[in-house]
Write a structure and sequence with these properties.
single chain; 4-stranded mixed beta sheet; 15 strands; 38% helix; binds pyridoxal-5'-phosphate
């Protein structure tokens, strides 16, 4: 084995080739609004809100103060069995009240969306057992899907590069094409509805490349699930808490889901926290007076009080500054400002029009001829002062903080154009 350099950094990045990255990390040390600064003081416009989550923007002192106040009072206490804490109880009530789900119950997860997805997968199976139909165990998800990196999320994922290295971690998982409702119905028919527990669906595909739902798709998928008694789980880890110009994508698309997985925008990332929002009908066998059912699941840091206090302060801020309404107002601005990029020879398509969520897809032929083009564009854009990233190797992500201005959206488009021009040799 080759000896590694003694002076190599110890920090191992996610999703990175450390052989080439070590020593070249972009170390971010400060943030303010839509801007983050590296250790040399260089500013970058954060066009991706970190990983789709810095919705209220960086450097909001009131969220830090909420965490400080809660930590001084009670930093952490477990919530297994009888224990709870006031911020967790208040945040659960608040989330249940804004969620487009009747009789919602809220199960908090500590690590973010991946934990919420695992919790949803386990609860879907536990629900069918609890109602006396233990044969319903298969979970269906879609191509292009990203459901996080825990065991359920990895297996449910529809991005082969993320799943293939690890094999099948969770059994009884099936996939259908992301945009084909008939394929979902056919699969359920082949398996038998009495074997299918749940269908996981991002209302707008996110990390797979930002694909808004084709006209009618979500309504059809929802209807198929209802007719075959398959739980519809909306994965709103990206789309929850305002990113689509409504509190939830489930509300915007009238999904009436059985469960909603969330994280990210719940705290705008100021502390890690996820939440599984469970409809009253799925909670019922566990909550019904006299029931002996126990959902034997939970994490040491579930419903962490400091994280929940930050969640409450974050929702206060979003409401006070009317940021969900602001996203709805900026939706056409983002779409109209990015659309002209579709005319560039290196661009295949611009996908926008659902909230502050968009992608600029690199032309398939350009990618085929030059596989290094995407990563070079990301670097070129960053060197020009804007942070983006490559989704599924094909498209550049745009998902800015909700506090972005029209002028800053213009700056994103101009910077993308300049990097594309340079890559095209202009
Ligand atoms: C739709 C979706 N589900 C789940 C996750 C996983 O969330 P986390 O990385 O917070 O565990 C993500 C993360 O991007 C996501 O986009």
């Amino acid at each position: 084995m080759q000896r590694m350099e003694q002076d190599q950094p110890a920090f191992w990045n996610g999703f990175a080739n450390m052989a080439s990255l070590a020593g070249h990390a972009v170390t971010i040390e400060r943030g303010e609004g839509v801007t983050v600064f590296d250790t040399s003081g260089r500013p970058y416009l954060d066009a991706i809100a970190s990983l789709w989550y810095s919705n209220v923007g960086h450097g909001r002192a009131e969220l830090a103060e909420a965490a400080t106040a809660q930590m001084a009072r009670l930093a952490a206490y477990q919530t297994f069995e009888p224990f709870a804490n006031p911020p967790a109880e208040a945040l659960a009530r608040r989330v249940a009240d804004i969620a487009p789900v009747a009789g919602a119950k809220v199960f908090f997860t500590p690590g973010g969306g991946s934990d919420a997805v695992d919790t949803a997968g386990k609860l879907a199976r536990a629900y069918w057992r609890a109602v006396g139909r233990p044969g319903k165990q298969v979970i269906v998800s879609r191509s292009h899907a990203y459901h996080g990196m825990n065991a359920y999320g990895t297996t449910l994922g529809g991005i082969p590069a993320n799943t293939e290295p690890f094999g099948e971690l969770v059994t009884r998982v099936e996939h259908v094409p992301w945009d084909d409702a008939a394929a979902l119905e056919k699969l359920i028919g082949e398996l038998g509805a009495d074997r299918v527990a749940a269908f996981f669906c991002e209302p707008v595909v996110g990390a797979g490349g930002v694909y808004p739902p084709p006209e009618g798709y979500l309504e059809q998928a929802r209807d198929i699930c209802r007719r075959h008694e398959v739980l519809f789980v909306a994965d709103e880890v990206i789309t929850g808490f305002g990113r689509l110009g409504a509190w939830f994508g489930s509300g915007r698309f009238a999904l009436d889901p059985d469960m909603i997985t969330t994280a990210k925008g719940l705290t705008s990332g100021y502390l890690p926290l996820g939440a599984l929002i469970v409809s009253g009908r799925v909670a019922e066998p566990f909550w019904r007076p006299g029931s002996a059912e126990v959902f034997r699941h939970g994490y040491t840091y579930s419903a962490h009080p400091a994280a929940c206090a930050v969640g409450l302060a974050n929702l206060d801020l979003i409401e006070r500054e009317r940021l969900v309404e602001r996203v709805a107002e900026l939706e056409p601005v983002l779409a109209d400002t990015l659309k002209p990029l579709a005319g560039h020879e290196l661009v295949g398509e611009v996908r926008a029009g659902t909230g502050l969520l968009a992608a600029v897809e690199i032309a398939p032929q350009a990618r085929a001829e030059d596989p290094g083009l995407g990563p070079r564009l990301v670097t070129g854009i960053r060197e020009r002062g804007v942070i983006t990233r490559l989704l599924r190797g094909v498209a550049l992500q745009v998902s800015p903080p909700f506090v972005i201005t029209a002028a800053q959206i213009q700056q994103i488009a101009e910077t993308f154009a300049a990097a594309l021009d340079a890559a095209a040799g202009r």
